[in-house]
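User
Take a look at the entry that follows and flag anything odd:
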Amino acid sequence: MSIMFISMLLVLLVPLYLYLKASSRSKNTSVFPTNWPILHMFPSFMVNVHNLHDYLTMVLAGLGHNFRAHGPPGTGMRFFVTCDPANVRHIFTTNYTNFPKGAEFAAIFDIMGGSLFTVDGEDAAAQRGKLKSVLSNPRMIASTEACCRNKVENILLPLLSYMASIGTPFDVQELMSRFMFDLATMSLFGVDPGLLSLDKPPMDAVVALNTVMEVGFFRHTMPASCWKLMRWLNIGPDRKLSTAHKVLRRFLMELMERRKMEMMERKISTCHVGNDEEQDGVDIMSSYPDYVDDDLSYAKNIGYMLAARDTIGTTLTWVFYNLAQKPNIVSIIRSELSPIASCKEASGVDTMMIFEPHETKSPIYLRAVLYETLRLYPPAPFERKTVAANDIMPSGHEVRTGDTILISLYSLGRMEGVWGNDCPDYNHDRWLSEDGNNLRYVPSHKFLAFNSGPRICLGKEIAVMQMKTVIASMLWNFDMEVMEGQSIQPKPSCILEMKNGLIVKLKKREM
């Protein structure tokens, strides 16, 4: 697309944007996107991009879980948007080879090009096979559990205790992001960057990871020719992404150098103690002895960091936001944890109770609360696929080669036809069996938080373990209050983070 055409497009969009912005304040405005001449539905979505997930939910609810959307001619923007469980199963399981991520998705996340995050087919299968063997290694699992447990006991809980003692409100989203950044780095490289301290400024690498997801969201909503031109000119959001790219590469190079030094020190120590088996590394990098510092390895590491940090840190924030408003559910979880806590010794009034990862496996309500949070606030609020060949969806809609399919996970959890008329409510009981002693089975095409089919999340149980360890330890030791007057809304990003964070105050719980 030429620069002249883009200029003409912007001239058309500006008055339409202003008109629609004014119209959106009217109570009589239809939730359905207007199909404008030439520009089709593009202006309607641009007006609502700041609140896109809720807007898509309203439209999908009104149009029976599916609708088509087109951008201006020449942009190639042909979307089929769905949250229909039957379509989800078709896309992710029944006919998944016909719905790859596609070249456009790989271009959007070019910073992770060639990694499992962007590839399809045999390449994806090979990378998944290797990663699955790494994450299922008993020593790796034990190391990950110990790392999480020690970080909670020795760093997180003392820091929270201090914040409770001074009574100062703080951003729990920022804290969870820092906590998971440390854990992700430790799991990947065996190196702790020590970011979990609120008196430290945000690390450049953390800001850079946020930029990757924010610019990714921007690219999803714009014609490819527009953001590619910005990338070529190094302007706008792509300028920020270019800077983030350099920051992350430098950070990962420093981590690798630090890791090499620590590994060398361990080998020297091993020579003295004469036990090399105990000194073997159990981080992810240890499973890739042929690692080379190239673009592909860099892309894979960025993908691992984003998967480990963003999804868990974001979910924990939404868990605490909802539980702070549901003291009855907090009481139930504490009652469930009480038999475990009664078997532990407390050495003083200031002692923090830590729950071991294996101890949080049995509590049913704890997992139900976690799943209910993921239903309403999936950390990855949408999935993008490409149609490889003409197909007919179970809903009866035809899709053509090259069409883009957007699956709204955020909307899927809010559809009355899927979850019942109480779908907007935060109700953990929906996950429990009638006797309350077991979790109710829910198929993955209805609950897509951990993906589905051949792409199902390989780190699911590790993620659940980490989240349950943090939630149990924080709920048992502290009462949390969300400060009033906050605007709680998602930021424009591929990750469902809160735009303004979540300011809370803690109080040490009296046992």
About this structure: Residues 95-378+413-508 form a domain with the Cytochrome p450 fold (CATH 1.10.630.10). Residues 237-273 form the longest helix (37 residues). Residues 40 and 330 are 48 Å apart (CA to CA).
